[in-house]
Amino acid sequence: MSMRAVLEEWSLMEKVVAVVSDNASSMLKACELLQKRNLPCFAHTINFVVQDCLAQDYVKTTLGKCKKIVSYFKSSTISYEKFKADQGRDMPHSLKQEVPTRWNSALRMVESILLTNNSISNVLLMTPKAPLPLTADDIEFLQDLKQLLIPFDAATVQTSSSAAVTISLVVPLTCGLFKSLDELKSTMKTSEGHQACIFLLERIKKRLFPYEERTVTRLGTLLDPRFKKEGFLFPSNADGGTQFLQNELSGMNKNNTMEQDNLEPSCSKNIHQSSQPPLLKFVGNKIASKVRSHQVNAIISLRQYFENENAALEIDPLQYWKNCSGQMSLTKSCALRYLCVPATSTEAERMFSKTGAIISERRSSLKPKNVDMLLFVNKNCWVSKEL
Fold first, then answer.
1. 8 φ, ψ to 5°?
2. What is the rounded CA–CA span in Å between residue 42 and residue 177?
3. What does the alpha-carbon distance between residue 222 and residue 321 come to, in Å, rounded to a whole number?
4. Helix 57-75 and helix 42-54: axis angle, to 10°?
5. CB-CB contact of 43 with 159 (8 Å)
6. pLDDT per residue over 332-374, tens digit each?
């Protein structure tokens, strides 16, 4: 069954604001055929940024030494036991190996090596035919690399949640990543660390800055009471998003007015007009024209929203809009429409992983409806634990 057929079957076609996917050309084509906006998964894009850095020769060389050391300990039970014993802990630390498909596994590997480097060196120096331990220069570079990768890991985790608003975090986190690395540039101890920092800054500009120009991410940030216009790196992008949001609200206001006009009896207008004193009829006409100015209503609604104090960073934006009413009801409707978009496709990938675990060779005869029920139970139990 095609995606269009599924969306139409569940009457979701008009409710889809954007399709979040990886950067594959096939996904872009599918969105084009569906005539829906495509939003590249933020986690995938971060992965590209970091993987580009890890692929540089000066980074690959040091990481290659780390992988060789971890592989040695993982393949030698005796050496691994000596490594644990040398730590002198009841619960010794273990070593993590890098997985090519997940960049943050490189960070975990670096962290585990920095944490246990003394024990690693002690065992390697006392073991014949073991790999050479890391040099002091290698350790300094790994410390620099760890500082550079931690902000990317934090951004990935924050935008991969399935129990909170994430779309509004994309633009502020991009801004935060750029500013954090720009500040780290002067703290790098090694030339390789400094070079990696500059490389990552350039990749952020190339791959992550465009999110500040995308409609969905711009509106998501503007409609999050924690950020509004202050979440942007470039004021021009905030202004452009505000203009688009204003037009969006104006269109929604126009549609709402048309619906009300269709529901309102025509005689009520005549009664209202006939009850006006003749000499003050011009006032009623002006009021009527003022009410019908959808653009003005949108401007007033947005001005009221933007001039209010920003919400605290720990506030749930959905809870904020739930408690709002009155003149901001139209802005509230728009906020709920855009804030529901996820920043990443992580949840879909989690579902694929769960499906792969459920549909095994021993369960090859499961009927589709039973698979759906198992996935539903599995998913909802996982969400309840997370909440």
1. -70, -35
2. 13
3. 13
4. 90
5. yes
6. 889 999 999 999 988 777 666 666 666 666 676 777 777 777 7
Q: Give me the amino acid identity at 132.
A: L
Q: What is the pLDDT of residues 23-52, one digit of tens each?
A: 788 888 888 888 889 999 999 999 999 999
Q: Which two tokens stand for residue 44?
A: 């995938």
The structure tokens 């039973």 sit at 370
**Which residues are 21's β-sheet partners?**
40
Residue with tokens 């290698």: 138
> Contact 120/83 with Cβ under 8 angstroms?
yes
Look up residue 50 and give its amino acid.
V
CA distance 175 to 238: 13
Question: CA-to-CA distance for 60 and 234, rounded, in angstroms?
Answer: 34
Provide the token pair at 208. 């992550």
194: which 2 tokens?
Answer: 């400094």
- Is the separation of the CB atoms in 341 and 17 below 8 Å? yes
* Three-state SS at 37: strand
Q: How far apart are the first and last CA of the chain?
A: 33
For 102, the 3-state DSSP assignment is strand
Q: How far is it, in rounded angstroms, from Cα 283 to Cα 34?
A: 48
Residue in the structure block whose two tokens are 């009471």: 225
Q: How many CA atoms lie within 13 A of 34 on its CB side?
A: 24
Give the span between the Cα atoms of 230 and 166, in whole angstroms. 17
Contact predicate 109/67, CB 8 Å: yes
Q: Name the phi and psi angles at 40, rounded to 5.
A: -60, 135
By residue count, the chain amounts to 387
CB atoms within 10 A of CB 3: 15
Half-sphere exposure of 163 (CA within 13 A, CB side): 9
Give the C-alpha separation, 256 to 330, whole Å: 9
3-state secondary structure of 313: coil
Task: Give the pair of three-digit tokens for residue 353.
Answer: 């992983």
Residue 318 exposed, middle or buried by CB count within 10 Å (0-12, 13-18, 19+): middle
pTM for the predicted model, two decimal places: 0.82
* Helix locations, 17-135, DSSP H: 25-34, 42-54, 57-75, 77-87, 104-125
